[in-house]
Structure formats: C-alpha cells, structure tokens
Specification:
Chain lengths: 348, 348, 348, 348
C-alpha cells in the first residue's frame, strides 16, 4: 500500500533491458553516439517536431531550471502557480540557474494557473520600468501539483496571453504522460501546437530510472542550452544510458501504457473512496488523489502500513471524526490488491 | 582498439546486477532509503572516516563544482593546475556554482601542482586586500589530467601549505582508484590522513554507469552541501540506484580490481610502445599514456580504426617522420588482444 | 508644488560645505582616510554601538542588496512585506547579490509586516527540508513604503520571532530619520536594542547627495561585507566624499532637523487636506501621505503644475466625483508656500 | 609629494561648481532630467557617436563589470592582459556580474595585450566545444596598468581579430584622457572608429568626484545595460549630480586640459629622473612612471614624506645600492614644486 509518491519505485522492464543492451561495448561520450541520436529522433517523431532540439537530463529539477534559465533573463520573472514545483520544491534552483530571476506567484484552482490571474499579473508587469523585474516567461505544470490537468483550450488561453506579450512558455510535464493517457489529444496538440515553447518531459516518475527530456520546440537557444547543461554538471559522459531509457520509454507507446496503468489504479481507488463516502477534493487529471478522510480512517491506514502524505495540517490527537486531507499517488506498479486492501482497511 | 577515453564503455556486471536488484519494490526517494545508508556506510568504512558526510551525484563536473562551491566563497580563488579538469573541461561550472570565484592557474610537470608554484601563488594572494580575490581553496587531481600520480608525500607537501593558510583542500579523484591500485597506500592515507578535506571519488570512468561520491571528511558543511546539491538539480529521486552502484563498486575491492585491470593494460601497452622505440612523455601513474609517435604510425593506426585523441598540434599532411603526441586511455574492459593489435599496427 | 518624491531635490548646505572641504588636498583612497574614520565613529556614537562595522555606499538598493547578501544564504528566503522596496523597486537586486535567494512576501496593513503573517510564514518554513529554501532573514522597512512607522514594540515583536528562529533582521531605514523625528526614541532603541542586526541608514532622501550607511551591529560579517561591496563595484576611491556627507548629516542632529522639517510640512499638508474633507488612507509615520482625492481636484492640481504620483488605478476620463488615491511626499526643502498653494488649488 | 595614485585628490573647480548648480531645485530622479540628457548629448558629441547609448556610474569597477556583463555570456571568457584592472583589482566583479564567466589572461609588454598572444588564445578557444568556455569578449585598457598607451594601429590590430571572431571589444578607458592628451587622435578614432564596441570612460581619476561614463556605441544592448545597472545598485536617484560632473568634465576640453596638466608633470618628473640616471622601465603613455631607484634613494624619499607604491619585491634591509621598482602617478593638481622637491631629495 505505497501511495506516497510515484518516484519511489523502479523502472519498467523494457527500460532496464534497454540500459543493459546499451551499456555493452564502446560509444563516444557526451551524447555523440548513435543511440542518443536515435532517442532524440524518437522524441521528435512522437511530438511531430522535426526541428526541435532534444536533450536528456536525469532530474526534473535540472530540466526545469535549465529550461527556464534558457528562456528567462536574470532580470525577468516567471509567472507560475504559487503551488508549482518550481516554487515549492526546487530549493530556488530556478533562481540559481537564471542568475537571480524572480517567480511571480499566481492563484488558481487545483494548482492550475488562472487565466485571469495571469492576465492581471502580466498587465501589471507590462507597465513596469527599470526599477522592476520584467516579464520573463510563463510556466505551467501538466498535470499540476494537485493532480489536475489543463485542457488544450486552457493551455491555449494561457499561451495566447504569452504570445501577445512575446514571452516564452515553459511546460513542466513531469506527469504529462498521465494527462495524455486520459485525453484524446496528441503530444503535439498538448504542447507546441498549443503554444508551448519548451517542454520538460518527465519520465522518471513513470518508468525510467533517471531520465527526463527537455524539448526546445524552437531550436534557436539550443547551443545556449547545451552550454548551460554542461556548466550545470548535467552533461553525462555515458549519455547513451539516459538515451536508452528514453528510447525504450517512447517506443510502442510504453510511456502511455504505463501512465494508463497508473491512472487506472487511481480511478479504482477513487471509485472505492467515493463509494465509501470519502470526498475527493481535486479534479482527477492524472494519477493523484486528494481525498479528505476521517482521523479514525487515517489511524487505521497508518496502523496497517499504508504509505502516503497528509496534505493538510491536523491534530494527531484530534477526535475520530476530525478530518485530514491526504495525497494518494499511484504508479505503474500499483496493483489492484494494494488498492483493495487500502479500501478494506479504510472501511473496516 | 578504443583508447579515446575511459568514459566510453559501460558498467561492470556487479554494478549492473546491483542496479537491477535495487530497482525492485519501493524505497523512499531522495536518499532516505536503507540502500543509500548502506552505501554511505561502505564509503566511510573504505575510507576509515566514520564521521564523513557522503553524497552521491552522477557526473564528475557536478561533484567538483558542488564540492568547490561548498568550500570556496564567491570572492575566493581556487589554486589549481592550469591543465586541470575544473579549468579546462567544465565550461566554468566552478565559477557558476561558487557564484563567481576565480581559479588561479599553476604550473607543474605532468599536470601536477608544483609545490613551489603553489607556495608562490599563495604568498602573493596572502598579501592581498579587499581589491583582490582571497585565497579560497586548493584543488589537486589524482591522477592528473596527464595521467601522473601524486605520492602521499607530494600531497602532504601541498596540503601543509593549505593548512598554514587555513584553506581547504579539494581532491578531484576521478581516477583515484587507478592511483591506489598502483600504490601500497590506503584510501585514507591518500586523502584525509594527508590533509584532504573533500574528495570527489570518481567511479563512472571505472565501472559504474553514472555515480560519483563526494566525501566531506569534515561534516561541518554537510547541510550546505545538501542544499547546494538540491538547487543544482543533482538530488536524484531514485537515489538508491546511484547508491547501489557505489555500494557494488566498493564491495570486495571491485573498484581496485577494475582499476588494476585497466592499469595492467596500460602497462602492457607502455611496454610494447617502449619496445617499439616510442617515447612515453608522462609519468605513468594510472591508466593513461602520452606517447609521441611518428605520423606514419599515426596514419596506420587511424587507418586500422584505432580510436584515440592527438594531444599536440600537428600538420596532418606532414612528413612521415614528423611526430604527434597522442593520448591513450585504457579501461577495465580493455583486452590484451586490443593492445597487441594496436602494437602490431604501430610496428608494421 | 513638488510632491513626487523626496529623492528629487539636492543636498543640505551643511552637506555641500562638507564635501567642498573634504575634496581639498590628498587623502588615501577607498576609505583609508581620517575623514572616513571620523564619520564611522560618528555613526557608532549616534547609534551607541561602539563595535558596529560601518560602511558607506551611494544608493539604497546597493545598501539593501549588500546587507541582505551578507546575511541570507543563496538557499534562504527573506521574509518581507509584499510591497517592500526590496521586492517592488530593486529589479531583483537582492536575488542577484545573494546568488539566487527568494523573498517570501507577507501581508500587513500600511506595508508593515504583520506579526501573525510573519509567524505563520516562518512556522511553515521551519518544517521544510532540503527541497525548499530555508529561513534566511527578516526585513522590515522603517518607515514603510506606505509612510507608516513601526513602534519600538512592533519592531521587537518581529525581531523576537527572528531571534527564536536564529534569523538575522535587516532594517531598510531609508526614512528612519523621519520616524525618529516623530518619536521619543533613540536610534539605538529603534534598531539594535530592539533586535535589528543590520541597518541601512538612508540619507540621500533627506539631505545628502548620494550617501547611505550600512551598519552591521554585529561586526562578525564585516570582512565579508567589504569584499561584497568591492566586487559589487560599490567601493568608492574617493570614499571621503561620501564620508563627509555622512559626517555632516549626523552632526548637530542635522538629519533629525531636516526630517522634522519635512515631517512638519507633511503634517501641515495633512491638516489642510483633512480640513478640506479629504481622507488620508495611511497611518502617517514619516513624510508621506496617501490621500484619496476627487478627479476634479486631481485635474485642477495637475493643471496647476503640482507634481505627484497617482497610487491607484483610475480612469482619466472618469466623472469629477470619481476618486484617485495619490502619494504626496514632502522633503526638507518643501515650503509652507508650496503647501498652501496646493491646498488652495485643491479647494478652489 | 603625493604620487601614490591619481584617485587620491578631489575634483576640479569646474566640476564642483557644476554640482553646486545642479543640486538646486527639483529634478526628476534616476536620470530622467534635462541635465542628464544634456550630459549624454555632450558625450555623444565628443565621441561623434550620435546613436551611442550613454550611462553614468560612480566607480570604474561598476563601469567595467556592467559593460562586460552586457557583452559576455556566463559561459564566455574575456580575453585580457594578465595584469589588467579587471583581473587584478576588482575582486572578481566581472565574474560576479557576468554570472560566472572566465578571464583568459594574456601576456604583453607594458601590460598591453600582445596581438600574437590574443590571436593564439582566440585560435585555441575557437576550436572548443561544449566542455569549454566560449570566446566572450576582448578587453583592452587605455592607458594600461603599466602606464603605456596603445596606438590607434595597435587597437585596430586587436579589434580586427575580434571582428573576425564576432566578439565585442571593451575598452577600460580609466586614463583615456591622458592618452588622448598625448596623441593627435580624436576620441572617436581611438574608440569606435577603431573597433571598440563599449567604452568605460574614466573621469574620477582626472577631475570628477565620482563619475564614469559607459558608452555603448551600438545601442542594441542599452535596455539590458539599464536593467543590469539598476539591479547592480548603480542607478542613482540624484543622477543629475553625476551628469553635472560629466558635462563639466567634457566641456571646453576640461578633461584633456586636466590630463595634459597631469601628463606634463609626469614628463617633468621623467626628465628629472633620467637626468639623475634613473631608468624608467615603462613606455610612458599617460601619467604613470615605473622607475627603478636605489634603496638609498627610496629611503631618503620615504624619510622626506614622499608617497608612492613599490612595484617590485625588495628587501627593506637590503644594501643601499640594491634597487626597487616604484610606481609614480601624477594628477591634475600635482605641482612643479612637488616634482622638484622629489628630484632634490632623490639626488641629495
């Protein structure tokens, strides 16, 4: 019953096999190898973006920080949700990599940037002079930190604001696969066709060991990105071992199949919770649920060894019928048995 | 006949097996898992350093830059050899991570920092006031970029200068295993017992996929290091997959056995070259040779598919008896057959 | 009728005379001169802080950014009001000088940091791990950007939170003189005796040409500050010309007399406005008023050449009885005639 | 007998008068005032550069660091002389402002960048890949730290290398006035007409209190420069007080007259030294002499209160006929009496 995070499991067998195959023999280092070329081509194909510049790094924070630094100057601000990963969980990596830019924190339901909040913040910034930071970039997270998904229309509404202001759009796609697996939308439609300039395509939470792709749909800043990656310490000598992961991940829709598996388990869990009368507080757009349970349920689950994080403050010594908001994350290895046991403990 | 670098092969079978085993099941992310604890304990044991703070990252540049930033202030200078990796091959990562420190470049045979050069540079810096950068740290590379090894006595001569000036000593130990495998010296004697404060222990060139250890023998700056690692994007969620590599690498002397294998091949190659009348220009302290060969030899080797880098400028259309300095690096997978074939082609 | 800012006039005659005297003859550069020593001693005396380290710079942004960088690490956050100068008007200078720290923006009436907001934000930060920025520093502005003043008790309530968390307290004292001139409180009581660790003492808005003092009540970080000042380009060769300004400014209570003059004009203006039925929306703690006037009044004032900034959005073509919030700042050269003319135009 | 530096005196009477006049009345802050506009126009006129963007700052280090940061990316290197001010005397301000760029240190007689050294260094850098810093900018100092002057031809030889590599050229013109006053060359010929892209025009050492101009001959990076200046804390609220200095300085050739006065005193001193058999070791291109004197002469001069810096290491207890290299700097207030007294003491 492990629902603490989707970053706590291993890698898909196809990915492990690809690594094992790739590590044999010699290959030129730092990405100058055929496997890396192949994996980059695979990304371009999946995203229908033949001119995109594609790079692999090993952590989501590195991907985001390098992408933002390549698109937002030191005197710029990144418009993003106040609960976004780049604000809350990267220990100021964006500020470090950009050389001291700011993040402008926006409101919005389910950790989605609200169109009106963005518009207002951008309008306020647009009137600014030399004493204030300038508009730098817009960042959206798909799915959000609250497990919600932007529709294509919602993405476009935000990116059209960006385009009018000539600001680039960054998408933190840590759980993009989970979103796409729930929608009848192509990767291209959800990203560059909807105005996204640079995508951080997560994979580590959904089947790779440690591999993320940064996709610059406009390759103009590709060389700058490469230099930033190197001096950030993120250029791997044995790059092909990252490339092998990404190639396997994107082959035969593995990424979407893994995400669908994970989403399905989230749905099974959601159904069971709702049947038990539990309120799920977020729009479920990926593999994360934010239910509010009673303390007696929480205590039983903890006692039975269920792993998850409380999301709201609560008094551990409170009465049984007090409630606590919790976060439940499924992953591609979650089993029906885990789900059913969780629901049983909750109910009993 | 691949002698271009030791970063172009894969990982040792023991390391691959450890990864495969570690990836099963769940483990808390970001290093909060038993395997990481075990691997850290293994490092402390190997280095006889029970209080050391031990961290794993995936690239040598990350290890060096984070280690230096944790020990040298933005207004400091790192004394190092002018040909060191931190100066020549990291695209100013140390400058980036420190927030704008300098590197003071020193002379020295075989890329070893000369005691006299260090002493003179430190003396000059010690007289400085607010207009100049201050002494920040000393950095030595073991083995050096020219494949030479510092003796324990040489390390101590440098670190005693550092101690007098109260400056910390960083050792870039990318090929420390190769050095130790050639000497009757313990890891502790070569490092903290000789005055090294922070060691970047390379492993990726000698049997891991992508795993390096940073060892802070004085744990005082451990928390700072952790924060720098995180905001540098170098804190892996599936840390245990790095830890697994490092544990396997340091178990049953695997690291020293792999290095000895690699060194042995370098020796076989050196013997053959000398027998063929070729001058080897560096002190051979690890697994790298810098021979000077004739252009006709170079052309034959290239024609036969041998992979290595020229080290000196030369005229590709020059006469047969002109010479070129080349760099030959063996690795733990280099075979006797490769060596012998190389020597045959050279001779024929 | 110039009420746009207090940074738009010149320097007091005593200050100009001091510069003229100081510029004669030779003096060792970079502050190694007797006049600088004397001015530093004067600051220490005025603040009853014999051990304080005292430095002079030429702009308030430089003072704040250097002070914060010397007290908040790159992975820290500065707790401050969301409308503070360091957030709103320094183009991310704090982020630049600290190497990428954050600012945590707090609410509070009249741009004063609310005790409860600070307590809540600090509590939230205190539970953080390596993924989040750490508590770095607390910054308060005296008087605030809304012209209000913290009482000694209010300062102490905030600094006691800081002390519990072992965080340093920065005071942006751009208009500290105006506050002190209104209270029966000594400079020491308002600052270090109330828990302030580093004070940026403004002077440029109140009688000097371009001179601010940074006072480190705890001199432990003095040398770091000096190095940061130098590499920030803020160490003046002809430092004595700054020192002369500061010495004159602090001699015979000139600073308090100038501030009292400015405050008196603000009071006269406030009285007149209130008599005319105008609401003044801020607590008046210094020399700034935020009245809300009608558009017909605004139009008459503009027509008569009055200089001030609107503070709220408004429709320039709106009806006469619509209102606009404006900011009026007096300075040490403001005359009764200016005030009375302004009130006449408003009323007519 | 003050020859320690030209930054240790005050300001010319014309400059002081201009400040006194400018400080009266009100003016919009931050350079939005008519006087600043006039001073900028004056600079453009003197340099025959109608499109140049012109900014005023208060220190040479600020001018250099901001100019370099606006022209060299964080992953670039600035080619400069190893003894240049930006390397030796700015405590890594260029590294700080650029966000971690490098300086590539070049040899050259009298602290002039040697054409061959620059060519070799640039050629070496041009072959570099992602592992190394890229060519960023070329920086020359006019006059050099050794008091020598580049001829127009020498400047052009260097800038033509820059142009081929599409790298911008920065001139640190701290003592440009002294050079121009010795040559029959216009300011334009010495700078943009010879390929200089950005000039830091010193004035503080030659007659202003604290005012330097940064001239971007190509205004493309003007807005970036303004933002960097602001966030560096170098945008003065009472900008007109800097502008007034610069306008007066450039009016009626004051800057050249002051420099000529200073140069003339250096010549008188040089003549006297040579007549006394003293070797002057530098090419005298400005107002600085580097003579080598005997220890008995040094002792007499010190005893008589002469102020200057030794330039070479020497044993203070050495024999009378040992020698020491010293640096003598004249300034616009140096008198014939000072010179003659110095020569008398030396001779006696």
């Amino acid at each position: 019953m492990f629902f603490a995070s989707d970053n706590a499991t291993g890698a898909a067998p196809e990915v492990m096999a690809a690594i094992a195959e790739a590590e044999a023999g010699y290959a030129m280092p730092y990405g100058n190898d055929p496997l890396t070329e192949r994996a980059q081509a695979r990304v371009r194909e999946v995203f229908e973006a033949p001119n995109a510049a594609v790079y692999f790094v090993a952590t989501g924070t590195a991907a985001n920080a390098l992408a933002l630094a390549s698109h937002c100057p030191p005197w710029g601000t990144v418009f993003c949700h106040k609960g976004s990963h780049i604000e809350e969980d990267e220990c100021a990596a964006p500020e470090f990599f950009t050389g001291g830019a700011k993040l402008t924190l926006l409101e919005g339901q389910d950790a989605k940037v609200s169109h009106d909040a963005l518009q207002a913040a951008m309008a306020s910034t647009a009137r600014r002079g030399v004493h204030q930071v300038q508009g730098g970039a817009i960042s959206v997270t798909q799915a959000t930190e609250m497990g919600a998904a932007y529709s294509v229309e919602e993405v476009r509404a935000l990116t059209s604001l960006a385009r009018k202001a000539r600001l680039p759009v960054h998408m933190d796609g840590t759980r993009l696969a989970n979103v796409l697996a729930r929608m009848n939308v192509t990767p291209a439609e959800m990203t560059w066709k909807s105005g996204v300039d640079v995508l951080c395509l997560g994979a580590t939470k959904n089947g790779t060991m440690a591999a993320e792709a940064v996709i610059l749909f406009d390759p103009e800043r590709a060389w700058e990105f490469e230099l930033r990656r190197k001096r950030g310490g993120h250029l791997f000598s044995k790059m092909r071992l990252l490339s092998a992961q990404m190639e396997a991940y994107l082959t035969d829709d593995l990424w979407l199949r893994l995400a669908a598996q994970s989403n399905g388990m989230a749905d099974r869990l959601a159904d069971g919770l709702r049947a038990a009368g539990v309120l799920i507080e977020n729009q479920v757009g990926a593999n994360m649920l934010f239910p509010r349970i009673r303390l007696d349920q929480h205590r039983r689950l903890q006692g039975a060894g269920a792993r998850y994080y409380p999301w709201t403050d609560f008094d551990p010594d409170g009465p049984d019928d007090a409630t606590v908001g919790i976060r439940l994350v499924t992953n591609f290895r979650t089993t029906e048995e885990e789900i059913d046991k969780f629901l049983d403990v909750l109910a009993a």
